[in-house]
Write a structure and sequence with these properties.
This protein has helices at residues 9-17, 30-43, 91-104, 127-132, 157-163; strands at residues 21-23, 47-48, 60-64, 71-78, 81-82, 88-89, 139-142, 148-151, 169-174, 184-189, 192-193. The protein is α+β, with helices and mostly antiparallel strands and 194 residues long. Strands 1, 3, 4 and 5 form a 4-stranded antiparallel sheet that branches. A 3-stranded antiparallel sheet has the order 9-10-11, with helices on one face. A two-stranded parallel sheet has the order 2-6. Helix 2 packs across helix 3.
Length: 194
């Protein structure tokens, strides 16, 4: 009888057959790595994971395979079982993966955490700053008392355009106001949203 170990290639083969294995970029880091992974997801027909699919919660997460940093696995636990693909993803999970790949080229690194349950909404934890040590993007707004204040949320395309430079990469937290918090996460580079 064969006992499967966590780093066994058979597990990777089963994950590939289940359509839940994701190759990490062959390039090292930066935008080339992000673009390579994004292209792979596009070629596979990546689907959006709606909260309504799972009774108000997102159940899918992406995990590093420490013995194989060149791949990751999507796990979807329903009724105690790991379900087959195809891969689905929500915006915060996607931003988390792309930021990890931008910085490290893989999910097998000390900053990556598969869970994003404490990110977004009205959370004070900001994905790019808290996990990957990127500077938080702020915008300036004049308050009703006439004083300028720095805000970390964006509600319009014009606000985003004013706060960004096409040559740089941004992790955007988009929301309608400070009370509703972050409603959408995205990566922005050269006018393209990922």
């Amino acid at each position: 009888m064969k006992v499967l170990q966590p780093d066994d290639d058979w597990l990777l083969r089963m994950a590939a057959q289940a359509e839940i294995l994701i190759p990490m970029p062959k390039t090292k880091t930066g935008m080339p790595a992000v673009l390579q992974l994004h292209s792979w997801f596009q070629d596979k027909g990546l689907l959006y994971e709606s909260k309504s699919d799972y009774k108000g919660t997102n159940s899918r997460s992406f995990w590093a395979v420490p013995a194989h940093p060149n791949v990751a696995v999507q796990l979807q636990l329903l009724a105690g079982m790991i379900n087959r693909g195809p891969i689905k993803i929500n915006c915060t999970t996607y931003a988390n993966i792309l930021l990890s790949v931008f910085r490290y080229g893989t999910l097998a690194n000390p900053c990556y955490n598969a869970s994003v349950k404490n990110i977004g909404g009205d959370s004070a934890e900001h994905l790019s700053k808290a996990r990957y040590q990127f500077r938080q993007v702020m915008r300036e707004e004049t308050a009703t008392d006439g004083k300028n204040k720095q805000l970390n949320y964006f509600a319009t395309a014009e606000q985003i355009d004013d706060a960004t430079d096409d040559a740089k990469v941004y992790s955007m937290e988009i929301g309608s106001d400070v009370h509703r918090g972050v409603g959408h996460h995205a990566i922005l580079h050269n006018g393209t949203v990922y």
